[in-house]
Amino acid sequence: MACSRTCSRILGLSLGTTALFAAGANMALLFPNWDATYLLRGLVGTHAMLGSGLWGGGLMVLTAAILISLMGWRCGCFSKSRPCRSMLTSLLSSGLALLGALICFITSGVALKDGPFCMFDVSFFNQTQAWKYGYPFKDLRNRNYLHDRSLWNSVCLEPSKAVVWHVSFFSILLCIGLLQILLVAIHFINSFLGLFCSLCEE
């Protein structure tokens, strides 16, 4: 049982740390090249504005991490809680963390598939000479921008290094989401083992 509580403390701390990193990565996506001008002008992509790293992989996971840590340290109302009550709280906190992590993971995957929101030259795709903001890689049929790095600096004109910024931070969010899902799975197993051991002790 003590081992299960120690594991909960470590998992709570780990989930809390990943939540803070997710929030930080999403914040960076709102300020391309650390420039607030794009956000103020409404020129930030939909995926970044959804803020899945802030409220999904961030706030939801952080709330669950605090609950998991409190159960591990037996603080407050968890100091003398019965095994079934602890298990219910554990399942609810795990469910909350899992939902937040999945939202962050899926949104990041879609964002990487669609590519960055940037100003591009329409003539790159047809004969009309014009510049506009949009998702130039979203409907690119024959080439995948993630594999063809020659497109990274030739398509997006503004913000500078838009593709690098987009790919870097959404890849970080994708990895964080995956790590959070793994940590939640470990917590599920730990909770069931803790319940089983506490029932055996009784």
How would you describe this structure to a colleague?
The protein has 202 residues and is mainly alpha-helical. Helix content is 68%, strand content 5%. It is built from 7 helices and 3 strands; from the N terminus they run H-H-H-H-H-E-E-H-E-H. It has helices at 2-30, 37-40, 46-50, 52-73, 83-114, 150-154, 162-201; strands spanning 118-121, 131-134, 156-158. It has a 3-stranded antiparallel sheet with strand order 2-1-3. Helix 1 (2-30) packs antiparallel against helix 7 (162-201).
**Widest β-sheet, arrangement of strands:** 2-1-3
Biggest sheet layout: 3 strands, antiparallel
In total, the number of strands is 3
Large-scale geometry = elongated
Unreliable spans are: none
Reading the helices and strands in chain order gives: HHHHHEEHEH
Mean pLDDT: 84
Count of DSSP H/I helices? 7
- Helix percentage range: 55-70%
Whole-number radius of gyration? 21 Å
How far apart lie the N and C ends?
Answer: 12 Å
* β-sheet strand percentage: 5-15%
Structural class: mainly alpha
TL;DR?
It is built from 7 helices and 3 strands, in the order αααααββαβα. It has 202 residues and is mostly helical. The longest helix is centred in the last third of the chain and has 40 residues.
Write the layout of secondary structure elements.
Layout: H1 2-30, H2 37-40, H3 46-50, H4 52-73, H5 83-114, E1 118-121, E2 131-134, H6 150-154, E3 156-158, H7 162-201
Antiparallel strand pairs: 1-2, 1-3
